[in-house]
Structure formats: structure tokens, C-alpha cells
Amino acid sequence: xxxxxxxxxxxPRAAEVITTRGLSRSFxxxxxxxxxxxxxxxxxxxxEYVAIMGPSGSGKSTLMNIIGCLDRPDSGEYRxxxxxxxxxxxxxxxxxxxxxIGFIFQTFNLLSRANALHNVELPLIYxxxxxxxxxxxxxxxxxxxxxxxxxxxxxxxLSGGQRQRVAVARALVTKPSLLLADEPTGNxxxxxxxxxxxxxxxxxxxxxxxxxxxxxxxxxxHAHRSILLRDGRIESDTLHPxxxxx
Length: 246
Known about the structure:
Layout: H1 3-10, E1 16-29, E2 32-45, E3 49-53, H2 60-67, E4 75-80, E5 83-84, H3 90-100, E6 101-105, H4 116-126, H5 131-144, H6 160-172, E7 178-182, H7 190-205, E8 210-214, H8 217-220, E9 225-230, E10 233-239
Parallel strand pairs: 3-8, 3-9, 6-7, 7-8
Antiparallel strand pairs: 1-2, 1-4, 4-5, 9-10
Helix pairs in contact: 4-5, 4-6, 5-6, 6-7
């Protein structure tokens, strides 16, 4: 059975969070044009845990930026929870991104002078949530990732794994429909990376939709589905039991 057909059978009623059709993106480089994405068709349904992987230059970062509403394709269609993204203004796109996508980056991207609680509050501040509610929600998110006793600590007072957990809490605090993780274990040692991946497994078991971008097949093996990109095209789309499952 073809991977996409098998995928469709496993998720016959699940809502589509991400849908792309004929997605293409090119970049000029001197006298040449780099075709970063070449007609990609991707569907990711609610509740899936998917790894996008590929070598440098495969197009995975370009795809992540488009899915994350940080860039726009040259052609093709992208729908996020059924919303045609191309039709949105920059302001509408920013609001959609803040509401629907929780970002987790390799470099954590935390404010160094702010404590963990304030870092997690930031998306709620942008969303206009009142102070009482956003503090309560930020505390709850930090407790959810095991940092209830570190809410007043600044990033410099936290370990690398704890900083990434703050970043995960910040991604969760708006209750987004998609968690988008870009090489989230890239700056962590092996043991700490396994702890973060175990947290991702817990979040997925709790119903979160996760898209993990990585160049590492060992990291991708923790997901339930892997999409391999090469030269801007999908080389394979494979369902598999996650690493560590029976």
C-alpha cells in the first residue's frame, strides 16, 4: 500500500491541520535560481506526530517557514485548519500564526532578562489577554512541563533542558492547533535530548499535533510518520511505530 493511501486510511475522519497542494518556492542566487520546493503536496491531520527530515538543501527549512506562516510560496496552495493562507494580509497572518502555531526553536529564543513566567506569557501579551489570566495560564503551562518550581528563574539560572521546557511551555500557552519544532534538540546533550523527546511523546499522547523538523533520522524515529525531502521534493512519506513503542 502506498504511504499516502495508508495514511488516509489511518486518519479517515481526522480534521486536516495542514494542507498544501503544488507548493513551490524559489530563491535567486547570483545568475541562477534555487528551487527550494517543487510542487509539494502534504497533508497533516489533527493529532499526528510527523517528522520532516532531509539533508541540508532539501527544502525542509523553507517548508517549515511556509507552514509556520513566516514566508509565502511562489505558487501552490497552503491551508491551515482550512484557512487559505495566501488570502490573508500580513496582519491577519501574524494573528493566525500567534493563535494557531506554537514554535519551539533549537536556540530556545528566550528573553535573557525575563524570568520563565514572563517568557511564557509573551504570546498572551501579543494576543491581548489580561494580566490575571495570562499569569495563570503561564503558570499552568510551566507546571505542565515540570517547571512549576522554576517560574521566577531567568534563562541563565536554568539548564539547557530546562530552557527548552520553558520554550515548550511558551509554545503551549496559547493552546495552538500545531506545535512546530525546528531541531529542538540540536543544542542539547544526548540525555537531555531524550528527556525533551519524551516530553513531546507525552504532549502527543495528550492530543497535540506536532511537526518536528530535523536532519537526524534518530530524532525523526520518535515520530509516528516521517516525510523525507530531497531537492525540494518528497522522496518518501512513511508511517512507522515511534521509537520506544512496543
